[in-house]
Prior knowledge:
Elements: H1 2-16, E1 23-25, H2 29-43, H3 47-51, H4 56-62, H5 65-75, H6 77-80, E2 82-93, E3 96-105, E4 110-120, E5 123-132
Amino acid sequence: xxRLRILAPLAALWLALPAWAQDVLAPEPGIEAVISKQxxxxxxxxxxxxxxxxxxxxxxxxxxxxxxGRMVEQGYPMVWRPDNIDFGALxxxxxxxxxxxxxxxxxxxxxxxxxxxLETEGGWLIDGVQILPQTGVAA
Length: 139
């Protein structure tokens, strides 16, 4: 477990290298907080609370917290029950912000995700998540 906590930040740095060719921005605490709070809500079984961090587009697609929760549990189990998360690069591409997140699941496996973020009058919301290939990432 300690080895993972040491290697995860190194993996985050390594995974950020390709993003340097794009517009890499300073960390945005509001974005990191929203992603962390959504994962905490999932971990605590608060699917309705997690749904609140989703953008209007995502809410429109899934319509109910229960449908959203089923999709996350089945398609993103590392988000449903993360053990540890580290934040990688925040980058801007075509006017949109993407936050790289390295998640260690309960089995100790690393997963690299990219969160598309949406800034609203009420704050940051998650507008999509993509699981990225893990070339060269090992724990």
